[in-house]
Structure formats: structure tokens, C-alpha cells
Amino acid sequence: MEYGIVRHDWKHAEVKALFEMPFNDLLFYAASVHRKNFKQNEVQISTLLSIKTGACPEDCKYCPQSGHYKTDLERERLMEVEKVVNQAKLAKEKGATRFCMGAAWSDPKDRDMPYIEKMVKEVSALGLETCMTLGKLDNEKAHALRNAGLDYYNHNLDTSPEYYEQIITTRTYADRLNTIDHVRDAGMKVCSGGIVGMGEQAADRYGLLMQLANLPKQPESVPINMLVKVAGTPLEDVEDLDHFEFIRTIAVARIMMPESYVRLSAGRTAMNEQMQSMCFFAGANSIFYGDKLLTTENPEADADMNLLKKLGMKPETREDYSDEAYEASLNSAIADKATSELFYEAK
Ligand code: SAM
Ligand code: DTB
Ligand code: SF4
């Protein structure tokens, strides 16, 4: 079978067969696809900031920010533009290339838009890629964000269509697909993935990946979150997902979406270094970087840099198209290609 090509017609039986491959064969396959499409030792790094925290009207059972559950979270109103820009500067100094701003909203309201648009413009002006996750978007708001210069919009499908109603009742799966359509129509890049470890069946993990891969255009960025269990949420005591199953999910996402960045997202504080490095081998090539996700802990930035160093990996930088840098990147691409061709012949 030819591999490493983008397909939009994945069937349940094929996905199941991938998940059920011997573990090392699956990892070898995923790593081969990864090397074919990316520089295998580079990781894209994004920093998150919660720009509006808590009291969300939606009832997502995993979420500490839902107003339906009693968690220890302190709610905060929409952050001032200047504070957001200061946080973005710090993230850039620490090496992030993308700044992702999240709001605990069902959707942004008209009154919020001028502030949101200003944030996008000012963060872009720092030379960072911009991403927002603000809930549902209609066509008009998607265009407004694009016109402000927003590069990516994050909107997760979260799980399979079949399991979805066990997790969220206030917004439908179709609502989510519509938002993704609007983001695409407006010309922004799509960041969409899901959460595993929410008590779903293996078939729901297949279903989530099939939904993402079979979209008319696959998301440029696919965050795979492992549930962070937060006290007070309905999923606080759900059974842990087996770590090998998590690594398999990364590997299958890499195979099904060969040209997408697969992000090892929430849940890394519960993973040791060896597990994270297996996820990188399985094709994860993006992480959230910085001590905090939106409201929960993430590994310390320095610990992440140390891990990358130990693995001989490095953060991806935004390309600088000065003649010298262009030539250097061209040479390294040629060298990488030569290595990956050797790798294929070895198979
Ligand atoms: N309110 C917006 C929305 O839901 O579209 C944006 C923010 S929301 C917190 C972004 C994503 O974070 C969710 O879609 C979910 O996939 C992820 N998330 C939230 N709580 C999580 C948790 N406890 N563990 C893992 N992922 C989580
Ligand atoms: C995504 O898929 N994961 C991020 C981001 N997109 C917005 C959020 C993870 C949130 C984890 C729980 C929290 O910190 O509140
Ligand atoms: Fe609200 Fe987003 Fe949390 Fe759902 S995931 S409760 S929409 S903040």
C-alpha cells in the first residue's frame, strides 16, 4: 500500500486495522510517514493564554471552565489587550512561534469583536503566528477575524459523533462542523482535534480520527489531548487511558493526516519523558509550551527545552526568507531528503 498520502475516504475497518497493528510495526510506519513529510527532529511550539476564564454556558463534561460544574477555578473577565500583548511578548522571548488565545465562551459576541480583533493585530505585529479558540463562529465573525489577520482557529471535534452526546449536550456535532466550515471559507487555517481518555471506546477514537481526516481539507493542526481530570467536573474519576493506546492514537493520526502537524497537547504532566519521546517518534511534531495550558498545569518550559535537547530535537522556527537563511534551509531540506530516501531503501 502506498503510504504518506492524504486521503479523505478512511473506513472504520482500515482505522481499526491500523490501531491493531503490532506496536512496533505501527510506530515504524508512522515514523516513516512523519519523515516523508516533515523534518523529524523539529517540533512546532505554541503558547496558550486564557483571555477569558470560567463561567462558560456550555456543559462540556471534561472542562473546568464550564459554569455547570463547581471547580476551584477563579473566573476572569476578558483580559485587556495590553496584558495579552505583554504575555505574547514573553512567549516569543521564550521561543514560541504561535500564540493561541482561548476564551471560555459559547461564541464571541458583537461587543467583544473590536477587542479580539485588536489583540490579533497586535500579536501578529510581534511576528508571532496567531491562533484563537473562542467557541462557535458564524461566517461573518470568521471573516472579521481573518481580516484582522488571524492565522489559525482552534475548534475541536472532541470525540466521535456517537460518543459526543455523552460529553456535551448544549452544542451539537453539526454546530462544530459548521464552525470549521466557516473558518475554512474565511481562509484561515484549521486547528482541530480531540480528547482521549474520557471513558470512550476504542471505536470512538477511530471515529474521531475518521471525522478529522475525512474533512474536505484536513486540519493543518491536530491537537490530541489526553483528558486532564479536574476535581468537580463529571469526568474527574474516569478510568485512565492506557498509555500505549494514547501513543497508538498519535501514530494513527500521523498516518491518516500525513501533512498535518499532530500536537501532543493537554495531559503531558501525566506523561514521563520516555512516553513523550515515543509520541514524537510516532509522529507528534507540535506541543503546547509554557507552564500553563489554559487553566491547568503544563510541564515547565525549561523542562521541555531540556527534553528536546536530550532527544537531539529542536523547536521549529518561523522561516526567514533572507537569501542566506533560504539557502541554508534549502541545503538542509536536500540533506534531509537524502537521509529519508536512504531510510526508505532500508525498509
Ligand atoms: N470555549 C471554546 C471551545 O470550547 O470551543 C474554546 C476553549 S476550550 C477550553 C478548547 C478545548 O480545550 C476544548 O475543545 C477541549 O478539547 C480542550 N479541553 C478543555 N478541557 C480539557 C481537559 N480537562 N482536558 C483536555 N482537554 C481539554
Ligand atoms: C486544545 O486542543 N487544547 C488546548 C487548546 N486546544 C485550546 C486547551 C487544553 C485545555 C486543558 C484544560 C485547561 O487548561 O483548562
Ligand atoms: Fe466552554 Fe470551551 Fe470549556 Fe466547553 S470546552 S465548557 S465551550 S470553555
From TrEMBL:
<comment type="similarity">
    <text>Belongs to the radical SAM superfamily. Biotin synthase family.</text>
</comment>
<protein>
    <recommendedName>
        <fullName>Biotin synthase</fullName>
        <ecNumber>2.8.1.6</ecNumber>
    </recommendedName>
</protein>
<dbReference type="InterPro" id="IPR010722">
    <property type="entry name" value="BATS_dom"/>
</dbReference>
<comment type="subunit">
    <text>Homodimer.</text>
</comment>
<keyword id="KW-0093">Biotin biosynthesis</keyword>
<keyword id="KW-0949">S-adenosyl-L-methionine</keyword>
<dbReference type="InterPro" id="IPR013785">
    <property type="entry name" value="Aldolase_TIM"/>
</dbReference>
<feature type="binding site">
    <location>
        <position position="263"/>
    </location>
    <ligand>
        <name>[2Fe-2S] cluster</name>
    </ligand>
</feature>
<feature type="binding site">
    <location>
        <position position="191"/>
    </location>
    <ligand>
        <name>[2Fe-2S] cluster</name>
    </ligand>
</feature>
<keyword id="KW-0808">Transferase</keyword>
<comment type="function">
    <text>Catalyzes the conversion of dethiobiotin (DTB) to biotin by the insertion of a sulfur atom into dethiobiotin via a radical-based mechanism.</text>
</comment>
<dbReference type="GO" id="GO:0004076">
    <property type="term" value="F:biotin synthase activity"/>
</dbReference>
<keyword id="KW-0411">Iron-sulfur</keyword>
<feature type="binding site">
    <location>
        <position position="63"/>
    </location>
    <ligand>
        <name>[4Fe-4S] cluster</name>
    </ligand>
</feature>
<dbReference type="InterPro" id="IPR058240">
    <property type="entry name" value="rSAM_sf"/>
</dbReference>
<feature type="binding site">
    <location>
        <position position="60"/>
    </location>
    <ligand>
        <name>[4Fe-4S] cluster</name>
    </ligand>
</feature>
<keyword id="KW-0004">4Fe-4S</keyword>
<dbReference type="InterPro" id="IPR024177">
    <property type="entry name" value="Biotin_synthase"/>
</dbReference>
<keyword id="KW-0479">Metal-binding</keyword>
<dbReference type="InterPro" id="IPR006638">
    <property type="entry name" value="Elp3/MiaA/NifB-like_rSAM"/>
</dbReference>
<keyword id="KW-0408">Iron</keyword>
<dbReference type="InterPro" id="IPR007197">
    <property type="entry name" value="rSAM"/>
</dbReference>
<feature type="binding site">
    <location>
        <position position="100"/>
    </location>
    <ligand>
        <name>[2Fe-2S] cluster</name>
    </ligand>
</feature>
<feature type="binding site">
    <location>
        <position position="56"/>
    </location>
    <ligand>
        <name>[4Fe-4S] cluster</name>
    </ligand>
</feature>
<feature type="domain" description="Radical SAM core">
    <location>
        <begin position="41"/>
        <end position="259"/>
    </location>
</feature>
<keyword id="KW-0001">2Fe-2S</keyword>
<feature type="binding site">
    <location>
        <position position="131"/>
    </location>
    <ligand>
        <name>[2Fe-2S] cluster</name>
    </ligand>
</feature>
<dbReference type="InterPro" id="IPR002684">
    <property type="entry name" value="Biotin_synth/BioAB"/>
</dbReference>
<dbReference type="Pfam" id="PF04055">
    <property type="entry name" value="Radical_SAM"/>
</dbReference>
<dbReference type="Pfam" id="PF06968">
    <property type="entry name" value="BATS"/>
</dbReference>
<comment type="pathway">
    <text>Cofactor biosynthesis; biotin biosynthesis; biotin from 7,8-diaminononanoate: step 2/2.</text>
</comment>
